[in-house]
Structures are given as C-alpha cells and as structure tokens.
Design goal:
The chain is of the alpha/beta class and 242 residues long. It contains ten helices and nine strands. The chain starts with a helix and ends with a strand. The model has no long low-confidence stretch (mean pLDDT 96). Bound molecules: S-adenosylmethionine.
C-alpha cells in the first residue's frame, strides 16, 4: 500500500471532539462569520441551478447557504460527526458522505460538477496532488475550484513553525469550543506550496485574495477587527479547469 493510502487523517480525532461545538459556534465566530464565510459567499457568485461539490464540508454551514441560493450540493468530510450534523442542517437538495480528502474519492462520473468548494479544509492535507487531481477530474470544463486556506503569513505568525519554507506539520491548542482545549494538528504551507500544486494539477489561477474582516466586525469586536485588518489570517483562491 502507498503512503497516501495508509496515512491517518491528522485532524480526524480533533474534529470528532469539536464537531458539535464547531457547528454551534462557527456561524457567529469572528474568524468564520466575519472573514471567511462572507468571502466564500462572494467568491462563489451566483450558484442558482449549479451542481456543487464540497470538500471538508464540516457541519454544512456553506452547503446550507449554497442550497438556499438554489444550488444542489454533494459534500464530504472525514469526520462522521460532522457529516451527521451536515445532514441535519441541510436535509434537502444536498447529499453528504464520509471520505478522506487525501485519498481518491468514491465518485465515478468525471466532469459532473460546475464548481468544487472547500472552506478551510484542504489545509489539513499534506500532499495536495491527490485532492487537486480529483477535483480537476470531477469538474466540468471551465468549472471552478473556489477555496479558502490559512494565509501563509497569518499561519506562520500563529504556529511559529521551525521554518517558513515548505510544508510543516504544526499543532495548536483550540480553546473556547469545548471545556478542555483540543490539540489541533495542521500543516503550515508556504506561498509556493499553495500556488505550484494548483498549476501542476492543470488549473488556471483566476483570483487570489488576502481576506480582511467585513465592516460589521468593527463594532462587534474592535480588537479582532483591528488585528485581522492588519494581519491576513485567511486567503481565498479561485482557479478554473482549463
Ligand atoms: C475548519 S473546519 C471547516 C468546516 C467547514 N468547511 C466550514 O467552513 O464550516 C475543517 C474541516 O475539514 C475537515 N477535514 C480535515 N481533514 C480532512 C480530510 N483529510 N478529509 C476531509 N475532510 C477533512 C474537518 O473534519 C473539518 O470539518
């Protein structure tokens, strides 16, 4: 068996512990609701009538929005608890299944999706070549892959990896979701490690955006508004299947 087939998903255990709290808290949390979610909603554009594949869908927060806006969604996540929550949150016009993004996906029909989306989930994959080739395969010609990740600068500042080059395994203690902090494994990824795998997979880069908070956070949480207005914590990237 190859390394890709045997490797355990690094964040599975942590997200199984966090799933319910994440589902309740993320829809209003500063970093998600006032930075990442508005950026993704803008980036996907008009989704009416579109068939969208969501990777690392978590508890279905983005899927709920996409379905509300008239799309049909197929989503997957490595955490069975997250998938149960997504099924409850989005009972209609969406299907969800458990799968690991680091491995080939159990979907046979190529070229069936208008768009692939991934909100803050591909960060947890060390080698992007497998998911990117799978997303490319599943997209229609000219289909878009729209995704958010941790910004390399914000990520470097947060994790303090031993080197700012390459892909580095890192960990952080997530406080505020559950009574006990949860250790979250992740990967720090330098800018070239974000862009070059996309080019290698055959995607054309359409847009790269360093995300800032929306104005509503200014009065709600002036400290976080100031902090994230100066230091990009996430980035949003739109690429197209050529
Ligand atoms: C920060 S959460 C984001 C959830 C959701 N996309 C959102 O924005 O609300 C990251 C998600 O990625 C999922 N994830 C982590 N590693 C994964 C893997 N190897 N395959 C699929 N999903 C994974 C986690 O289970 C979790 O639901």
């Amino acid at each position: 068996m190859s390394d890709t087939e045997t490797k355990k998903p690094i964040a599975l255990e942590a997200y199984e512990k966090l799933a319910e709290a994440f589902s309740e808290i993320a829809p209003a949390k500063a970093e998600n609701a006032y930075i990442e979610q508005p950026a993704m909603r803008k980036a996907v554009g008009d989704v009416r009538g579109k068939k969208i594949f969501e990777a690392g869908c978590g508890p279905g927060i983005l899927a709920e929005y996409l379905v509300h806006e008239g799309a049909k969604v197929v989503g997957f996540d490595v955490s069975p608890k997250m998938i149960d929550l997504a099924k409850k949150r989005v009972p209609d016009n969406a299907t969800f299944f458990v799968a690991d993004m680091a491995k080939p996906l159990p979907i046979e029909q190529d070229g069936q999706f208008d768009m692939v989306v991934a909100s803050l989930s591909i960060d947890y994959i060390e080698d992007w070549s497998v998911p990117l080739s799978e997303f490319y395969r599943l997209l229609k010609p000219k289909g878009k892959f729209v995704f958010t990740i941790q910004h390399p600068i914000g990520s470097w500042n947060w994790y303090k990896p031993t080197s700012a080059f390459g892909v580095q395994y890192v960990e952080a203690s997530w406080k505020g979701f559950t009574e006990e902090p949860v250790i979250m494994p992740d990967y720090y990824r330098s800018f070239e490690e974000v862009i070059n795998p996309l080019i290698k997979a055959g995607f054309k880069i359409l847009k790269v955006e360093d995300l800032k908070p929306i104005d509503a956070l200014r009065t709600l949480d002036p400290y976080k508004f100031g902090k994230y207005s100066k230091l990009a914590t996430f980035m949003c990237i739109i690429v197209e299947k050529e």
